[in-house]
Write a structure and sequence with these properties.
This protein has five helices and four strands; from the N terminus they run αααβββαβα. By secondary structure, the chain is mainly alpha-helical. It has two domains: 31 residues; 103 residues, no CATH class. β1 and β2 form a beta hairpin. The N and C termini lie far apart (95 Å).
């Protein structure tokens, strides 16, 4: 009969270390599950629990303090729109989708306002919508579940803060009627 292999101190140490790592990994997983449980329980105390859960979870996954927990203390992640920026026309070859039932058309491309950290900070949402509208966009996907429909509506309802100072209705022509080349995206200082 063959003798069992002799345990060395190296084998015992490796086994002990592996067990300790596995033990701490179990503790970490349990702690994470407990935190997710508390987040879920807290979110069910709000009017839109699913929205609150995602509005908290998505920023946390990117390492950004969520507005649902910390309010508007967070610096907006969308840069401000320059004061001299002029609105652009809608894209020339914009594609549309025909809606079933009514036959109405809506732009095929739009701005989705869910599932990213900047979609849950009110000021970032306002700035993002303004950038999009000034670039000629007209289709914004939002829902009450996203918890950002209020700042989207505030920004869309407000008149353009950057009115065109040029009263000329055709921006591609100068006042003398000559063709003005490529239209600048920003007004002259």
């Amino acid at each position: 009969m063959a003798a069992a292999p002799k345990k060395t101190s190296k084998t015992v140490t490796t086994t002990t270390v592996c067990r300790a790592i596995a033990k701490w990994m179990c503790y970490a997983v349990l702690a994470l599950l407990a935190l997710l449980g508390l987040l879920a329980a807290w979110s069910f105390t709000t009017p839109v629990p699913e929205g609150t859960f995602f509005a908290t979870l998505f920023p946390l996954m990117r390492g950004i303090p969520p507005q649902t927990l910390f309010g508007s203390l967070v610096r907006p992640s969308t840069p401000p729109v320059p004061a001299d920026m002029l609105p652009l026309a809608r894209p020339a070859k914009e594609s549309f989708v025909t809606l079933a039932g009514t036959g109405d058309q809506m732009p095929a491309n739009g701005l989705g306002m869910c599932c990213r950290a900047s979609a849950y900070d009110d000021e970032s949402v306002r700035r993002t919508v303004l950038w999009y509208l000034l670039q000629g966009g007209r289709h914004i996907d939002t829902a009450m579940l996203y918890l950002n429909h209020k700042p989207i509506g505030e920004r869309a309802a407000r008149p353009n803060p950057n009115p065109n100072p040029n009263p000329n209705p055709n921006p591609n022509r100068t006042r003398r009627g000559h063709r003005g080349g490529h239209r600048a995206r920003r007004a002259a200082p």
